[in-house]
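Worked example 2:
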Amino acid sequence: MHKDILKLSIPNILTNLTVPLLSMVDLHLMGYLDSELFMGAVALGGVIFNFVYWGFAFLRMSISGIAAQAYGKNSDQEMAMVLFRGMLIAILGSLFLLIFQTGLEKLSFLMLDGSAEVKELASNYFYVRIWAAPAAISLMVINGWFLGMQNAVYPMLISVLINIVNIACSFVLVKNYGMNETGVALGSVIAQYTGFILSLILFLKKYRNTLTYLKLKSILIVSEFKRFLNVSGDIFIRTWCVIAVFTFFTSKSAGFGDVALAANSALLQFLFLFSYFLDGFAYAAEAIVGKYFGSKNKAKLIEASKKLFLWGSIFGISFTMSYYIWGGELLLFFTNKENVLNEASIYLPWLVFIPIASFGSFIWDGIYIGATASKAMRNTMLIASIGFFFIPYYVLHDKIGMHALWLSMLLFMFSRSVLQSLLAKRAVYVKLQ
C-alpha cells in the first residue's frame, strides 16, 4: 500500500510544486523591481484568477473521484463520459469568461481593497492573463481524468512543461523586454496553451480509443449528467468557500496598506508551498480511495486511509519545523525591501503552525473526493469558513489588527481537519457496509 501511495503521490507532488514555484518566481521578479507596488499588483491580479480558476477547480476534483470509481468498476463507457461531460462544461465556462471579461474585471476590483496605483497595474495583468482561461480550465478536466485513470505521470509531465515555459517566458519578457506585470501574465498564457497541446498529444497516444464513445446524445443523458452535476455542485460550493477565504485575506491585507499586502503575499507563498505538497497525497487519496470505493473493497480503503495519514503527519511536522528554523531566510527570496521583510517577520510565527494544524484536512479532502462524499465536504467547509474564519476576524480585527487575519486562517485550517474527522465514519466508510 505504501508503494501504491508513493507511486501516485510522488508524481503529483512534483506536479503540484511547480505551481507555487511559479508564483514564487513571479513574486521574485516583481519584488526586485523598483517598487513594492508591482508585488501587490501581481498578488491582487493573482487573487482574481484564483477566484476564477479555483471556481472551476470543482471539475478536476469531481472528475478524478467519479473517474476513479468508474475505473474500479472497469466501465470504459462511464470513464469516457466523465471526461466528455467535464470538457463540455470547461468549454462553455471559458467562453463565458472571455465574453464577459470587462464586467468581471470591474466587479473584481470593486470588491477588492488596494491603492489606485496597485489596481491599475493589476488591471493590466488581468486583461492579458484572462486569455489563458480556455486552456487552463480544460487542463483541470484532463488532469483530473488522467488521475482517475490512476495515471499521475501525465499530469506531472504537463505541469512541468507549463511551468518551465512560464518561468522562461516571464524572465525573458520582464528582464529583456521590461514588460513587468504584463510580462508575467503573458508568460502564463503562452505556457497554458503549450501544456494543453501536450495534454492532447498524451491523450491520443494512450487513450485514443476513448473517442469511440464520443456521442452528444450519450453525454447529455439527464440522469447521469445530474449525478455529475450534483457531485460537482457540492464541490463547487466547497471550492468557493476556499476562494472567499483567500480572496478576503488578500483584499483585507491590501486594506492595511501596500507594504502589508506585499508582506502577506510573500508569507502566503509558504502556505501555498505546503498546500500543494500535501495535495500530492490528497490526489493519491482521490485515485486510490476512488478505486477501492468503486470495487467495494472496504478493508483496502481503510488501510489506505491510515497510511495516507501517516505520510501526512510526517510532512506536516517537517514543514512546521522547516518554517520555524529557516522562515526568515526564505523571505529573502521574495524581496530585498527592508520594510516588507520587517512587516512579514511580525506575522511569520502564525504561519509556522499552519502545516501541523492542517495536514489532516488535505488528506481528508482526497479521501472524501475519492468516495464522492461531496455533501460532507461542502458542509464542513461552510462551517469552517464562516464559523472559524470570518466570525473570528470580525470579532478580533479592531483589537489585534492584522494578527486577526492570521489567527483566523490558522483556525480555519485546523477546524477543517477536526470537522472532517468527526464526519468521516458516516460520510465515507459506512457507505460500503
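DSSP finds 17 helices and no strands in the chain. Residues 2-432 form one domain.
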